[in-house]
Amino acid sequence: MKKSLLSALMLTTVTLSALAAPYAASADEFDSKIADQDSKISSLQNQQTDAQSQISSLESDVADINTKAQDLLAQQSELQANSQDLQDQITTLQERIDKRSAMIQKQARQVQVRQNSTNVVDVVLNAESFSDAVGRIQAMTTIVKANNDLVEQQKADKEAVQQKQAENEQQLQQIQANQAELEQQKGNLISAQADLKVQQTTYAADQATAEDEKASLQTEQQAAVAEQQQVAAEQQAAANAQAAAEAAQQQASSESSTSVTTEAPATEVTTPSVTEPTTPSVTEPSTPEVSNDNTNTTETPVVETPAVETPVVETPAPTTPTPAPSTGASASRASITSIAQQYIGVPYVWGGKTPSGFDCSGFTSYVFAQVGMSIGGWTVPQESAGTVISVGAAQPGDLYFWGSQGGSYHVAIALGGGQYIHAPQPGESVTIGSTAYYAPSFAVNVLG
Question: Taking CA 330 as the corner, what is the angle to CA 329 and CA 336, rounded to the nearest 5 degrees?
């Protein structure tokens, strides 16, 4: 019995030792996996940092383009003012020329009626004296010369002003071309910035996933370590039980030997019989002691398993996206024009896309977004928001464009009757304009 118990304890110890090895290996594997996740998270963080750096660089480029655009728009405003001033000068000169032309024609008619009035011979013959004749001739010559000089000067002035106006128009065209180029650059930068923000969001999502996986691995690792500690405790308990069993066995053997040695002389004196020493009384006293000792020593000690704290992974609360407005009845022409007119007076800000400040394309984009329609963030994509039509065919809610298709530099929302609403230029605000004063190049039917 004692040998069986000892054998069972040894078998249990060997079994627990065999089970402990895989758990130890498993804990080490978790350490390796967690280290891999840490490396992955660090790499993703570096990628996010790089993406943010690129975004910051692009934002700096956008700021530079904004500054350049403001300078060009200021030049354009100045040139437009100069052009208007030159046009006023041309109008004034034309009025003077018209008046003097009328006077010359009147003088010509008088000459035809009174032939002698322009006849130098008659003037000389009718003169009272030589000096009178000379004076009359000089007066006629002076009048004719003065008229001719005045007309020539007026013509020269008009040609000079017209030349300046032509140069001014060329400058305006150059500024418009620059604006179109700036719009293109603005679109490229917006697109690149959007791509980088998408990358940044992707990296953040990947990092969150990696961190979740790391937390899961840490939880599993802690569970494995706890189980490993439990197995180790059980091994220690089995070892203690085995040692106690061995000690009890040695004690029982020692007591049995002592009992046999003490009782042997008494048997030889009282009874000469040879068989009495084999009486079972020699072994009986030791039997209950062994049994009691085994019962006491094989009791397995209670081993407290340390509690494993499972890390709490905070899951961000799901956000409910705001539903976009319906593009059905709400996206009517009347609603678009009505919404657009609510922002009359909002100051012009190049690159502005909110009611705190609009540029031309930012204004149209914002208005259409209010009825659930995305038409693009700058002029060229907005050209593709519908069907290209003539300016005369535009209806309220359609878009007017200035510049060539694919290179437009200004956009407005048609109101009907030759009017439109737009964010004109720096120093001005959202206002209503007329195609008679500032004619668009083409239109786009957005609503069909």
Answer: 120
Q: What is the DSSP string of 66-128?
A: HHHHHHHHHHHHHHHHHHHHHHHHHHHHHHHHHHHHHHHHHHHHHHHH-GGGS-HHHHHHT-S
Question: Which of 207, 394, 410, 412 is flagged as catalytic?
Answer: 410
Measured CA to CA, the distance from residue 176 to residue 178 in angstroms comes to 5
In sequence order, which residues have a C-beta less than 8 Å from that of residue 184 and are 6 or more positions away?
A: 380, 407
Active site residue 360: yes
Please give the pLDDT value at position 279: 42
Catalytic annotation, pick one of 186, 252, 422, 424: 422
Instruction: Please tell me which residue in 349, 360, 373, 380 is annotated as part of the active site.
Output: 360
Cβ(421)–Cβ(432) below 8 Å: yes
Q: Which two tokens stand for residue 168?
A: 């001014």
Q: Is 410 a known active-site residue?
A: yes
Across residues 67-84, what is the average pLDDT?
77
Mean pLDDT of 357-378: 94
Q: Per residue in 320-364, pLDDT tens? A: 334 444 444 345 899 999 999 999 999 998 888 999 999 999 999
pTM over 0.70: no
How many C-beta atoms surround the C-beta of residue 430 within 10 A? 23
